[in-house]
Amino acid sequence: MAGTDRTVTVDRQAEAAPAIILVRPQMGENIGAAARAMKNFALAEMRLVDPRDGWPNEKAVAMSSRADDILTDASLHPTTPAAVADLQYVYATTARRRDMEKPTLTPRQAVADMRTRLAAGERVGVLFGAEKAGLDNDDVALANAIVYIPANPAFSSLNLGQAVLLLGYEWYQAALDDGDIAPALPAGRDGEPARFDELVNFFERLEGELDRHGFLKPPEKRPTMVRNIRNLFQRAGLTGQEVRTLHGVVSALIRRDGED
Questions:
Q1: At 246, is the secondary structure helix, strand, or coil?
Q2: Which stretches of the chain are DSSP H helices?
Q3: Domain ranges for the chain
Q4: Taking the model in full, what pTM does it have?
Q5: Which of 21, 96, 102, 116 is deepest in the core (most CB within 10 A)?
Q6: Phi/psi of residue 207, nearest 5 degrees
Q7: Can you name the residues that pair with 128 across neighbouring β-strands?
Q8: DSSP 174-185
Q9: Distance, CA of 125 to CA of 20 (rounded, Å)
Q10: In angstroms, what CA-CA distances link 28 with 37, 60, 131?
C-alpha cells in the first residue's frame, strides 16, 4: 500500500517505546516484514533471539522496504533471558490461550498498560515467537503478562509480520488519541493548510464571477447562498496549493466565457 511521505521524519527517541523481541525467527523475509511494520507505527528497537538463518540477513533487508535502519540497529541475543535482561516488564504475544496464571490482555489493553509503565520510567518489551509454533512455554514463563490476539478459532495462527503490525497499530493509535503525535495530512495533499486571507481572496473572486453571471439571485437570498458556498469550501480543509488550483479553474472558465 503506497503512502509514504519521505519529507516527514520521526524522532525515534522522542517517546519511550517497547522493545520488539523476535524469538527464534525462521525466515529473513519475516524479520524484514516485522521491521517494516515497526517503522509504519514508529517503533524503533528490535531485538533478535537466535534467528535460524543467521544475522545479518539480506532477505530481511529486501523485505523491509526501506526500514533497513531498524535492522541495522537490531541487537542479537543468544537466548530469550539474555534479550530481556535489562527490562522490567515483559509481554508475551500468543494467538492461543496458555494455562498460566498471568494477566491476559488484548493488544489494545496491553498498549495502555505499556504506556503507563513507560511513563513511570520502566523499560518494557514484547516477545513474538517463531512462525511455525510461536513462543514456547519457557519463553512465556519469563513474561509478566500475556498479550492474547483474538482471531478466528479455526485459523488463529498469525504471520510474524502481522502480529507485530497489530501491536504497532494499537501503539500508534494510542499515541494519536493521547495527543502525543499529530495526525498528518492525508497522503497526496500538497502543502500546508490555506491561510485565511487566501481563502477570502478566492471567495470574493468566485462570488464576483457568480454575481456577474447572475447566479446569486434573488438579492434577498444572496447572503445565505454566499455563506453556504463558503461553508462548502471551508469543510474541505483546503491547502494553499488547492486554493491556487481553484483560482486556475475560475480563470479557465473566464477565458472560455470570453471566447464564447
A1: helix
A2: 28-40, 58-64, 68-73, 80-83, 107-119, 137-142, 160-177, 196-212, 222-235, 240-259
A3: 19-177, 196-259
A4: 0.67
A5: 21
A6: -65, -35
A7: 22
A8: HHHHTTSSPPPP
A9: 6
A10: 14, 4, 11
To 10 degrees, what angle do helices 160-177 and 107-119 make?
60
Given pLDDT bands bounded at 50, 70 and 90, which one contains residue 150? Answer: confident
For 19-177, the fitting CATH number among 3.40.1280.10, 3.20.20.80, 3.40.640.10, 3.40.50.620 is 3.40.1280.10
DSSP state of 96: S
CA distance 129 to 123: 20
Residue of 197, 205, 198 whose CA lies nearest to 249: 205
Give the span between the Cα atoms of 84 and 94, in whole angstroms. 17
Residue 19 corresponds to which cell in the numbers above? Answer: 522493545
CA–CA distance, 214 with 118 (Å, rounded to integer): 63
Reported as a single tens digit per residue, the pLDDT across 179-221 is: 776 665 554 555 688 899 999 999 999 999 999 999 999 999 9
